[in-house]
Write a structure and sequence with these properties.
- This protein has 550 residues and is of the alpha/beta class.
- The protein is built from 19 helices and 25 strands.
- The strands form 6 sheets. The protein has a 9-stranded mixed beta sheet, sandwiched between helices. A 7-stranded parallel beta sheet has the order 5-2-6-1-7-10-11, sandwiched between helices. It has a 3-stranded mixed beta sheet with strand order 16-17-22, with helices on one face.
- Helix 1 crosses helix 9 (253-259).
- The chain binds glutamine (GLN).
């Protein structure tokens, strides 16, 4: 590699050991938040070892939510944590998979760019990874690079090797290794076990990486003697063994890590001087979350109800909406299929607000429509997101606008009233080009993706929420509101409150004779933050609180 580091940006590499799901993403985001609280600028990158080029085509059951950035990247859900905890804005360059790295190397090989050389894991794949990482060089004070998976995974080896090399390229004052591991408490023995951590650090050492800081996930605080023991076996100083204790709310993680001195250690090791951190906003936030004065129950009807990870950002946005209204938001997930048979309708009665989230495919569709009918007729606050908005249009068309059999062509190709349909072409303001699609288009990367502008009509719920004439929100869908039926639906009472600036794409619909009924074609959950709750979630929760019966 011949690129010279800028000597401006310092890199923190975070690896994980023992097992997955220890919360590496949250740890990375929290470290970013602490560094920002000391006045530094940060960015992030997630390196995912799997072979898919991006997670766009992956099943959210397996992988969790697909997060979308302004520039239309379909990314890992950790991008959501990064954006929610800091001011960093994520984009294509902030998430790489093995697949994307290999793809680019193979394309270069096909173009003959390697001049007849043998293309190998080292240096070609590792160089490609290093190039991806070094794109962030010079842009911020600190770049936090999270390596997905667990140390020891075969797939992860090229990434581990690349960051090992980067330490040499960047130098000690410009690179830092943090390893997140598990220190389990064995109830039957009443003991805390350090062996898994020792083994996982040995695994890292075998790859040539000595961690500088260990963050230990644990149920019980680690005392000094345990920290000393871990330090001794893993070649780190006892003060660099950080307890990452289980917390009540994920927004407490920055505070707990700060108490353990993680930010001090990082600055010391990277030779950075800053003033004292301003963690007050986080203290106040956690206090608000832990001591709300109100409670509200929101029902979510979806397909992925079994796996909450599939609705990560949505879940967080509802919590943020609660923060804005001094309320604890209880979520009740109802499987849409159970609503189809009618057996779960009673459960809806216990909810103060009903939300139908985004989704793909036809499973449980009629159940979701029943939930919408219930919300509309009983004046329960309703929020439809993407698919939820499309189904609200279908429901309205069928019941109010007398379009019997109305549907989205995603669900019924033969419907006499295709109120939601596959848009074959549209004008992309950002590129100034007309985008073209058809039924045979590739599944990967062919949706309407990323940020699009939307203009709001005055006197509507949307305008009341945003208090702005034009907004920008992120999209991820293939189907659209069909303008052929717009006039008829509007005459029947559907309010179109948000459209693309040229008026060709309907982005928000609502009902006038209802306390709060709104559907949006975009995904507002990708732009809500705990410190800046999204206006639509804030107002939906507010309306749901007002609707509370008891
Ligand atoms: N399946 C719908 C579409 O493709 C909605 C997608 C979504 O909810 N994200 O348009």
């Amino acid at each position: 590699m011949d690129t010279q580091p800028s000597k401006k940006t310092k890199f923190i590499f975070i690896t994980g050991g023992v097992l997955s799901s220890l919360g590496k993403g949250l740890a990375a985001a929290s470290i970013g938040a602490l560094l920002e609280s000391r006045g530094m600028t940060v960015t992030f990158q997630k390196l995912d070892p799997y072979i898919n080029v991006d997670p766009g085509t992956m099943n959210p059951f397996q992988h969790g939510e697909v997060y979308v950035t302004d520039d239309g990247a379909e990314t890992d859900l950790d991008m959501g944590h990064y954006e929610r905890y800091t001011n960093a804005v994520m984009a294509q360059k902030n998430n790489y998979t093995s697949g994307r790295i290999y793809y680019s190397v193979i394309m270069k090989e096909r173009r003959g760019e390697y001049l007849g050389g043998t293309v190998q894991m080292i240096p070609h794949i590792t160089d490609e990874i290093k190039k991806a990482v070094l794109q962030l060089d010079g842009s911020v004070d600190v770049a936090i690079i999270e390596i997905g998976g667990t140390v020891g995974d075969i797939e992860g080896l090229p990434f581990i090797e690349a960051i090992r090399q980067l330490r040499g390229d960047l130098g000690r004052e410009y690179s830092l290794f943090i390893h997140l591991t598990l220190v389990p408490y064995i109830k039957t023995a009443g003991e805390i076990k350090t062996k898994p951590t020792q083994h996982s650090v040995k695994g890292l050492l075998a790859s040539g990486i000595q961690p500088d800081i260990l963050m230990c996930r644990t149920e019980v605080p680690l005392d000094q003697s345990l920290k000393k023991k871990i330090a001794l076996f893993c070649n780190v100083e006892p003060q660099s063994v950080i307890t990452a204790i289980d917390v009540d709310t994920i927004y407490e993680v920055p505070l707990r890590l700060h108490e353990e001195g993680v930010d001090d250690r990082i600055l010391e090791k990277l030779g950075i001087w800053t003033g004292a951190p301003n963690i007050k906003p986080w203290v106040e936030l956690v206090d608000k979350i832990k001591h709300p004065h109100h409670k509200v129950t929101i029902c979510i009807t979806g397909k992925y109800v079994e796996l909450k990870e599939a609705y990560k950002s949505l879940h967080e946005s509802l919590v943020h909406g609660g923060i804005a209204n001094d309320a604890r938001v209880e979520l009740k997930y109802i499987a849409a299929e159970d609503l189809e048979t009618g057996e779960a309708i009673d459960e809806l009665k216990e909810c103060d607000g009903i939300l139908v989230p985004g989704g793909f495919g036809s499973r449980g569709m009629e159940g979701k429509i029943r939930a919408i009918t219930y919300a509309r007729e009983n004046k329960i606050p309703f929020f439809g997101i993407c698919l939820g908005m499309q189904l609200a249009v279908v429901e309205f068309a069928r019941t109010i606008a007398a379009m019997k059999g109305a549907n989205s062509t995603e669900l019924d190709q033969e419907t006499p009233f295709p109120v939601i349909y596959l848009m074959k072409e549209w004008f992309d303001f950002r590129t100034g080009k007309t985008e073209v699609r058809d039924e045979g288009s590739d599944m990967g990367g062919t949706l309407r993706l990323g940020a699009y502008p939307c203009k709001l009509a005055e006197g509507t719920l949307a305008h009341t929420a945003y208090q702005q004439a034009e907004i920008s929100e992120r999209h991820r869908h293939r189907y659209e509101f069909n303008n052929l039926f717009r006039e008829q639906l509007e005459e029947a009472g559907l309010v179109v409150s948000g459209t693309s600036p040229d008026d060709t794409l309907v982005e928000i619909v609502e009902l006038a004779d209802h306390p709060w009924f709104l559907g949006c074609q975009f995904h507002p959950e990708f732009k809500s933050k705990p410190m800046q709750p999204h206006p639509l979630f804030r107002d939906f929760i507010k309306a749901s609180l007002e609707n509370k019966k008891d």
